[in-house]
Amino acid sequence: PALDSARVSDVQVSAGVALLAWLSSINVFLLVFNLVPAFPLDGGRIARAVAWRVTGDKHRGTRIAGRMGQAFAYLLIAFGIAVALRGDTFNGLWFGVLGWFLGQGARGAVAASEFSESIDGVTAADLMDAQPVSLPALTPVARAREEFFLRYGWPWFPVVEADGRFVGILDEGRLDGAAESATAGEALDAAQGGTFAVPGGTSLEVLLGSEPLGRLGALMVVDGHERLIGVVTAEQVRRALAAR
Fold it and tell me: Which of 56, 94, 199, 210 keeps 20 to 30 A from 16, CA to CA?
C-alpha cells in the first residue's frame, strides 16, 4: 500500500503514510540518480576518482568523468524529447532542462581541467622579477622616503632584514604616520608580512586565486628561509596566462 500510495494509486492509506511513502520514493530516486557515473553528479565524482587512480593523472580523470557527464546529459535530453513527443510535454521539458544543466556542468569541468593542465608546471619562481628593489629594515624613515618612495615613485616596498629575510610591506601611508626617528622595520605592519609572501614553487593556478595578489598587485617570493628572492606581479601573471 505504501508503494501504491507513493505512485498516487487509489489505495486506502492515511495521509501521513502517503506523504512518507512519497518522500521516500523521491529520495530513493534522487539517490539512484545522483550515483549515475556522470560528472558533476556524485557518481561522476566517484568515477573521476577511479579514473584518476587508474591513470595517475588528475586532469585526465576529470576529463573522462566530464565526457561521461556530457554523454549522459545528451541521453537525458533525448529521453526528454521522446517523452514530450509521446504527449507528456511537461515531464519531457523537465528532463530536457535537467539534461541541459548537467551538460553545462560537465562541459565546464572539462574546460576547467584543460585550462588547469595548460598552466600546469608554471610557478612563481618562473614568473618573478629575480632582482627586486627592497628596503632594508634599519633604514630611517626620512631616508626611506627620500631614497626609495620619492626616487622610484612606488606606493610600497618590501622590507628585508640584513640577512635578506622578508619581514613585511611598507606602504606610503604608514610611512607618513611614522615618527622621523623610526626605522622602516618599525613603521611597517609586520603582522601582514606573511600575507604577501609565497614560496617559489607556488603554482600559477594558485596565484590566479590569490586575494593578496589582487589587493596589492604583487606577491613577494621567498625561499625556505623566508629570504626575499623575487617579486611576482599581477601583470606578470596575466601575461603568463595569455601566453598559455
Answer: 94
